[in-house]
């Protein structure tokens, strides 16, 4: 059996650092290597979204405090501080000839893949997703970032194949370990799950702050804070997001939750697009690009946690569908509108059900629209 | 070896002013002709910067001398002032419309100025009168290849290929057109003929292009890599290499490849367009716009370049400009899904809900039609 270890022993790090240095973006790669080195050898505490947003909390304490508790603020964690991996220190999974083990060793977590007389050990670096549905891991191998082929699923409390991985049969142990992320894909993943990591259209791993931060939606908050400190009201202006139309809000949220245009152009088609709420919402018959009562933030507080009580959404529906405005009202029920008109749909492979945001009259046996 | 016919044409054009110069010098120069003689002398010595004002001074006094005007055109083209050269060549042709040498020079100036369709139009006039003018025919085929007129290239080159079955440059161009026209079987015959002489960059490029067309990206990459080792200056090679790299997600190296192609082949439509798309993704809108505009200059009216510019306008907040162009595009090409998608966005931004809804409905219909036409749709 041939073995390739990428654990942080002397030989492994030399190889990793060596491979990173051939990256065309040498300075970034070197910084990246140093950060990796520091993270594993000195166990530096990571900066969280909350700490990065402390700047905003000085004036906007309530919004910041609420936001810290949201899944968005925890959309990315460094593996050494990942709660799910700490709570599940020994995970295993078998897929055909490949056996997977995700094992916690102090604060590091190692993904070991064995199969076809080969073995690969890889320290996981990043945990994507808070674990409401699942959590996927990212590691670095030979200078590139990889998305792990196995993910943790909250519903089962176990590993399973990452969504999308089921369609691909690995041709090597490297492919069994994960999917090589292309440059743009990696940038876009970090752009949505973290902040401060993307500037000038490029990913800078060394400055990534995990989780969606204030600046992810509000723009240049540091400049704003500086201007406030200097008493410069003009320089302190940030976009007034509360004034955005339904369309503009969908485009803003769609930067990460995917816009209607993105899905319309590139898919996916069918049930897999149930995850992309702006696209689904905009396909609703009742969607009106300029009606504020149907914008994302009419139902969801971007600074707060997700409301799970269906009845709480009823008054959002009756804001339009009230007797005074509609001659014909729902003949089936007077409450829990979303339960029927926004059904939860099982996404194959995700071990989770997603609320379909295409608001409609759902009839038994009707195919999934689109 | 640079296989393209462009180099041999360039040599021909360099000779053109010299031949004209001999013709002019053979006459006994009257006093005013001294200016012309001096201009020609400077031109022949390669002192183009000094020759241009001499030609201009002469032509001020003798504006009707077509040969002197053509020489001025050649000097201006030599100095890279293609637009001015085009003006002079056109004036020369007004006096001598049947002069094929001047027209060939004019077409080359158009070609260099990235006005490929104008170059092709001039070359078509030459080849209509002189079907055996091989240089003009090959350059016309090269222009048509750049314009994406693959069927025309095949039509032009197929008879020539029968006459010159060992002309590698011709075979390479014809093979490229066949592969782009999805006639891979005929293309393969030509690749095999090139391969008879051993491994070559041309054959590797054609093989890679064939693999790229069937989405065998790994295979295509291997062929392009080998072609680069064999002849990195082969026209279009880095353009194809860039596309294969982009298809495999290696966008930083794809960008490098497109830039390398443009260093030697600045009028390459694909590299300009693809590099623009990559730059847009990197939020480098200013340079992206330059690339798209250049691609549009190479292929005037090209829908892809126009769409990319409109999409860039939409991103940059120039909604009205974007909307106007997108309306034109969707009118011209009703099946253009991307244009309908962006047009819907433009309408919504302009608070034109009904128009936006209409565009979105078109997109959903087109997507459904596309899905229904996919293999296996009937079984589903």
What does this 3D model show about the protein?
The complex is a heterodimer of chains A (370) and B (380). Chain A has 370 residues and is of the alpha+beta class. Chain A has two domains: 160 residues, no CATH class; 112 residues, no CATH class. Helix content of chain A is 32%, strand content 22%. Chain A contains 16 helices and 16 strands. In chain A, the strands form four sheets. In chain A, strands 1, 2, 3, 4, 5, 6, 7, 8, 9 and 10 form a ten-stranded mixed β-sheet that branches. A two-stranded antiparallel ribbon of chain A has the order 11-14. In chain A, strand 15 and strand 16 form a beta hairpin. Chain B has 380 residues and is mostly helical. Among the domains of chain B are: 146 residues, Tetratricopeptide repeat domain (Serine Threonine Protein Phosphatase 5, Tetratricopeptide repeat), CATH 1.25.40.10; 78 residues, Serine Threonine Protein Phosphatase 5, Tetratricopeptide repeat (Alpha Horseshoe), CATH 1.25.40.10. In chain B, helix 6 packs antiparallel against helix 7.
């Amino acid at each position: 059996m041939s073995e390739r270890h990428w654990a942080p022993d002397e030989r492994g790090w030399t190889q990793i650092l060596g491979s990173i240095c051939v990256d065309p973006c040498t300075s970034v790669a070197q910084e990246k290597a140093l950060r990796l080195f520091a993270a594993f050898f000195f166990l530096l505490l990571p900066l969280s979204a909350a700490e990065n947003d402390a700047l905003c909390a000085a004036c906007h304490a309530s919004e910041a405090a609420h936001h810290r508790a949201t899944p968005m603020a925890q959309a990315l964690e460094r593996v050494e501080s990942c709660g799910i991996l700490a709570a599940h220190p020994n995970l295993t999974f078998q897929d055909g000839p490949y056996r997977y083990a995700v094992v916690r060793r102090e604060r590091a977590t190692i993904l070991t893949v064995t199969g076809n007389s080969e073995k690969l050990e890889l320290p996981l670096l990043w945990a994507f997703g808070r674990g409401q549905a699942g959590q996927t891991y990212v590691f670095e191998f030979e200078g590139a970032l990889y998305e792990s082929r196995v993910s943790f699923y909250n519903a089962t409390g176990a590993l399973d194949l990452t969504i999308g991985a089921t369609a691909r049969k690995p041709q090597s142990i490297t492919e069994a370990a994960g999917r090589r992320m292309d440059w743009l894909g990696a940038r876009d993943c970090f752009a949505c799950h973290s902040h401060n990591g993307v500037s000038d259209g490029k990913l800078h791993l060394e400055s990534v702050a995990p989780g969606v931060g204030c600046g992810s939606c509000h723009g240049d908050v540091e400049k704003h804070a500086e201007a406030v400190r200097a008493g410069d009201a003009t320089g302190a202006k940030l976009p007034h997001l509360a004034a955005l139309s339904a369309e503009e809000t969908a485009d803003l949220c769609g930067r990460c939750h995917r816009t209607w245009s993105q899905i319309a152009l590139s898919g996916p088609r069918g049930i897999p697009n149930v995850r992309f709420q702006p696209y689904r919402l905009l396909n609703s018959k009742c969607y009106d690009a300029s009606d504020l009562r149907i914008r994302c933030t009419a139902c969801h507080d971007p600074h707060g946690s997700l409301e799970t009580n269906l009845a709480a959404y009823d008054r959002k529906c009756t804001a339009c569908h009230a007797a005074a405005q509609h001659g014909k009202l729902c003949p089936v029920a007077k409450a829990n509108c979303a339960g029927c008109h926004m059904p939860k749909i099982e996404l194959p492979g995700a071990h989770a059900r997603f609320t379909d945001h295409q608001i409609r009259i759902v009839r038994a046996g009707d195919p999934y629209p689109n | 070896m640079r296989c393209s016919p462009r180099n041999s044409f360039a040599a021909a054009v360099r000779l053109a002013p010299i031949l004209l110069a001999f013709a002019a010098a053979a006459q006994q120069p009257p006093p005013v002709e001294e200016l012309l003689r001096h201009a020609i002398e400077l031109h022949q010595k390669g002192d183009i910067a000094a020759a241009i004002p001499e030609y201009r001074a002469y032509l001020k006094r003798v504006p009707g001398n077509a040969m002197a005007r053509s020489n001025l055109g050649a000097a201006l083209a030599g100095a890279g002032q293609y637009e001015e050269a085009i003006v002079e060549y056109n004036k020369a042709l007004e006096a001598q419309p049947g002069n094929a040498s001047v027209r060939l020079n004019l077409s080359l100036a158009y070609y260099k100025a990235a006005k490929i369709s104008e170059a092709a139009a001039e070359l078509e006039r030459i080849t209509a009168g002189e079907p055996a003018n091989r240089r003009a025919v090959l350059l016309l085929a090269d222009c048509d290849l750049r314009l994406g007129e693959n069927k025309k290239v095949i039509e032009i080159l197929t008879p020539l290929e029968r006459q010159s079955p060992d002309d590698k440059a011709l075979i390479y161009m014809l093979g490229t057109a066949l592969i782009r026209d999805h006639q891979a079987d005929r293309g393969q015959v030509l690749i095999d003929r090139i391969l008879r002489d051993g491994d070559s960059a041309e054959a590797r490029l054609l093989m890679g292009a064939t693999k790229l067309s069937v989405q065998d990206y790994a295979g295509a990459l291997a062929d392009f890599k080998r072609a680069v080792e064999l002849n990195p200056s082969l026209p279009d090679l880095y353009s194809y290499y860039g596309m294969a790299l982009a298809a495999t997600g290696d966008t930083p190296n794809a960008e490098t490849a497109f830039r390398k192609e443009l260093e030697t082949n600045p009028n390459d439509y694909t590299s300009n367009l693809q590099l623009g798309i990559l730059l847009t993704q990197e939020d480098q809108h200013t340079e992206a716009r330059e690339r798209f505009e250049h691609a549009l200059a190479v292929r005037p009216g090209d829908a892809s370049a126009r769409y990319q510019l409109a999409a860039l306008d939409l991103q940059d907040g120039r909604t009205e400009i974007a909307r106007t162009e997108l309306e034109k595009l969707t009118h011209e090409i009703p099946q253009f899904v991307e244009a309908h998608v962006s047009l819907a966005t433009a309408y919504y931004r302009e608070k034109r809900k009904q128009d936006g809804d209409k565009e979105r409905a078109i997109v959903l219909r087109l997507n459904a039609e596309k899905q229904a036409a996919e293999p296996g749709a009937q079984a589903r």
